[in-house]
Amino acid sequence: MQRRTLASTGRESSVIGLGTWQFGGDWGPVSDQDAFAVMDASAESGVTLFDTADVYGDGVSEQLIGRWLRANPDSGVTVTTKMGRRAEQVPSNYVAADFREWVDRSRRNLQQDTLDLVQLHCPPTPVFEDDAVYDALDALVADRSIAAYGVSVETADQALEAIRHPGVASVQIILNAFRLKPLDAVLPAAKQAGVAVLARVPLASGLLSGKYTTDTEFAAGDHRTYNRHGEAFHQGETFSGVPFEDGVRAAQEFAAALPEGVSVPQAALAWIVAQDGVTAAIPGARNADQARSNAAAGSLDLTTVPGLDSTVHELYDRWFRATVHERW
Questions:
Q1: Are 27 and 203 within 8 A, CB to CB?
Q2: Could you say which of 85, 106, 217, 292 would form a disulfide bridge with 121 (CB–CB 3.0 to 4.6 Å)?
């Protein structure tokens, strides 16, 4: 497993992390036993970065990680959590008093005195432009409630605004073979500023798992059923905002371009972490086998997959540039 420095935090992170939105139930039910098996398998495979949020299962994901951390005190895992989406999404809610309340709740859930890294969870655009927001976050660092802070964003412009602020340690942004816009400006700006980039939705909500067909159906409680067009939250969070049928067909072409023995998700993840400026990709996993397979991408030698980068760009230009590139 490759490792990189998580920017100004000074922590070493595996290039493949573990996203834990699925622990909260929005991808269908995941038992506590399965969640612990996923975390065990990830850590055993060299993963040292777990990403969560206070809104995943309204705290369930954080609580599960907190219990796992207590049972594995020497794991060396860095936990990045996110805050803000439990509140009404208006800029007036992104103030110091609310930050204190949210952080203290996450500290209890995660059983941590000092949170490793807290990210604002895709707040309204004006929040990124408000200096008072960053002052309030700096105060939380100063009193050691949090060790560092960053942002999770929906758009490249939001990322670029956040990167301008010197206290920002990380930007979490949708980046995968079907969402290439961050390559244009965000990755270069983050690298120059010394800001970590965490690539979220790296498998396009499973499109880049290589196992779906246009007839695949998902459970009613799965966001891939109820949020395809942004009915519940931002459309980009589901299948990266690309039309499901187009994504399936593009993933089939992606798979056909790979040599025997290289899986679609491993190639897709390895391509992400090969991009200059990316710190880590944070795929989710519903079972231990998926966790181990994802982690293996962190040591995949891309010289065994010739032409992968040109394949990614060709598919993107043909299937998605016209529909998603200018939107986010």
A1: no
A2: 85
Contact 237, 26 (CB under 8 A): no
Summarize pLDDT for 161-185 with one digit per residue, the tens.
Answer: 999 999 999 999 999 999 999 999 9
| Digit-coded pLDDT (tens) for 72-108 | 999 999 999 999 999 999 999 999 999 999 999 999 9
Determine the distance from the C-alpha atom of residue 92 to the mean position of all C-alpha atoms in its chain, rounded to a whole number.
26
Q: 215: buried, middle or exposed (CB in 10 Å: 19+, 13-18, 0-12)?
A: exposed
pTM of this structure = 0.94
**299 phi/psi in degrees, rounded to 5:** -125, 15
For residue 172, give Cα distances in angstroms to 33, 43, 177, 301.
28, 21, 16, 25
CA distance 219 to 215: 13
Q: Per 3-state DSSP, what percentage of the chain is helix, strand, and coil (rounded to 5)?
A: 50, 15, 35
What burial class does residue 242 get, using C-beta atoms within 10 Å of its C-beta: 0-12 exposed, 13-18 middle, 19+ buried?
buried
